[in-house]
Description:
2 helices
Amino acid sequence: MKQYHNQRKYSRSKVAIAATLTPEGGDSFGVEVVDLSMGGVFVHSDQALKPGTICQINMLLGHFKHELPLVAGAIVIRSVKEGIALRFEDVKLQSIPVMQDVIVDHAEDPEQAAMEFSSHGGWIFSPE
């Protein structure tokens, strides 16, 4: 099995969040976000997408009828048997504070995750 070198710059948080992934020009399908960071997500999915595919991901936080959608534009970094790795390209403004809270609350090291946000002036994206 091919090993991937961890190239993450930000703390990752293990989560279980229902989401819908919509590839550009394609149909939406359900996924489960299992890993969330400032830079992107890893989702469990039965479907595969080619690296470079532009997508929109809608994550639903909260309880039935009180769900808060978190919306982000993303690009597929890799597809593997277990799911799809996505790098955020843009996060909708109203989603940022809640997404930051989720990342910090579920981080292995919440203090480190909070420091990453504050030291970078909030939500940032790498142009790479």
